Amino acid sequence: MPRPVRVVAGGDGFPLGPATALDAAPGLTEVAAVLRGALGPATGCDFPPGPGGIRLRIAPELPAEGYQLDIRPSGVNIRGGSAAGAFYAVQTLRQLLPPATLRRARLPGGPWTLPGIRIEDAPRFGWRGVMLDVARHFMPVSDVLRLLDLIAFHKLNVLHLHLTDDQGWRLDVPGRPRLTSIGAWRPATMLGSRQHERYDERPHGGFYSDDDLREIVAYAAQRHITVVPEVDMPGHMQAAIAAYPELGNGFAGPVRSSWGISPHVLNLGPEALQFCRDVLDHLCDLFPSELIGIGGDECPSVEWRDSPVAQARIRDEGLAGPHRLQSWFTARLAEHLAGRGRRVFGWDEILAGGAPPGAVIAAWRGAGPAAHAARAGHAVVSCPDTSVYLDYRQSDDPGEPTPVGTCLTLADVYAFDPVPPGLTPAEAGLVLGGQANLWTEHMESARQVDYQAFPRLCGFAETVWGPPGRDFDAFAARLPAHLTRLDALGVNYRPMTGPRPWDARPDAPGNPRTIEDRLAELREMTADLDQASA
Ligand code: ACM
């Protein structure tokens, strides 16, 4: 899982044993190390270098992320279009063995035999993403690395790391010590959705050192995952403004403890702009990704109406009003990133007033904005909340933890198609792929992230890997075997029978919505885009 494009099973397989050799072509030593690390501990095989066992080769005629895997009694032959393709063949190999081989230590059992099979496989999309929000709840590095392993196991290849928000700032920036001494900590945390007005009394926080982030990037790269960092600007900035009030419009208060959208945004004066450039420079130093996330979602312009700094900017730049300030700002960030050979990655709100050329759009407000972005000539990553927001509840069972958003069952996620209807072939070609988003307001630990992510992320992986026209019943029939793999990997997935009694969060009540209500809200939220394209 995700289901390979072409599988021909049959014939005798290949027995693994302590003498099974591994013959990796020069450019595949890292993939060989991954194979040894993944299969060695549980099988007891060291895979010494040499011929006659598993053979890893690059076949440039294959799609870059594609591979062929041929298992027969004489050996295992892996050909990858690139190291990424060979890496995905190794992930498939892991799934062809019994789940016990996925564990981190040896159990009684074996010897293990790989089944006779021939697989030809390649992904439909180049962007198979997961967004993790480490701002609402900080996640220790070890948990992020574990999530990277699980992402890679499902052949996903982008981690969009949402590093800052109103409720916490999670990275060090040179010369700005208060971002982490003040901005990384909040005094309390809201429990459940806003309207219940419940809080715990525990401070929450944490941040990543430069070396933490370098480790995440390097660990991801070994697994052929690109980490796309995001610092959300100019809204969702209350944590930074709590640390440096001069960046705001008069707000002097703590990091936000409640959910929802803070009205306290950057003032966009010279100092705030320099701050953003410094932050982006630091992201460029730490993250090799060509795309750098600038956020841009949900920025209220209310404060700008009465802010002398914002008004001076509006006057100096001859802007039509506060509603034009954000697109002016986004253009400046795009210029700055271009100077470093990078490009803007932003939420679909940056389409309002025109996004900078070359900006890649994360289209989230329902299914509409992906089409708007493509029609405006932007490359786009589809992540509509109505299909792939994994913080939304998985069923209408009253035992679901903190039920928010619309009901997104496994079947709903499986029905997702990154390419919205009605696009020309050229516009459809601008859809880079899809992304499942893990907003963590209501997930305070990796255990809860597991619950929300799995098994829906398994279904999502098929929507971005396999050809269109998938069959949910066939997927559901393959899923129980896959869940035994997740068991071996120690994943706290949602059982198919529904939440367990201790998954419920009566202390953190939610706010379940109907799809009809949400669609009406989205129509209103994206009316400006509709008007612009009309
Ligand atoms: C978002 O969900 N605010 C991008």
TrEMBL record:
The record's EC number reads 3.2.1.52
Q: Which Pfam families match?
A: Glyco_hydro_20, Glyco_hydro_20b
Record's Gene3D superfamilies? Answer: Chitobiase/beta-hexosaminidase domain 2-like, Glycosidases
Coiled-coil features, chain-numbered ranges:
none
Indicate the residues that form the catalytic site. E298
Q: Which CDD domains match?
A: GH20_chitobiase-like
Q: Which UniProt keywords apply?
A: Glycosidase, Hydrolase
Catalysed transformations (reactions): Hydrolysis of terminal non-reducing N-acetyl-D-hexosamine residues in N-acetyl-beta-D-hexosaminides
Q: Which SUPFAM superfamilies match?
A: (Trans)glycosidases, beta-N-acetylhexosaminidase-like domain
InterPro entries membership? Beta_hexosaminidase_sua/sub, GH, Glyco_hydro_20_cat, Hex-like_dom2, HEX_bac_N
The terms under GO molecular function for this entry are:
beta-N-acetylhexosaminidase activity
Top enzyme category: hydrolase
Q: Which biological process terms from the Gene Ontology are attached to this UniProt entry?
A: carbohydrate metabolic process; glycosaminoglycan metabolic process
Could you tell me which residue ranges the Beta-hexosaminidase bacterial type N-terminal domain spans?
A: 1-122
Q: Domain named Glycoside hydrolase family 20 catalytic: which ranges?
A: 125-466
Instruction: List cellular component terms (GO).
Output: membrane
Report the PANTHER family cross-referenced here: BETA-HEXOSAMINIDASE, BETA-N-ACETYLHEXOSAMINIDASE
Which family, according to UniProt? Belongs to the glycosyl hydrolase 20 family.
This chain belongs to the protein called: beta-N-acetylhexosaminidase
Question: Which species is listed as the source?
Answer: Actinoplanes awajinensis subsp. mycoplanecinus
Give the source lineage, highest ranks first. Bacteria, Bacillati, Actinomycetota, Actinomycetes, Micromonosporales
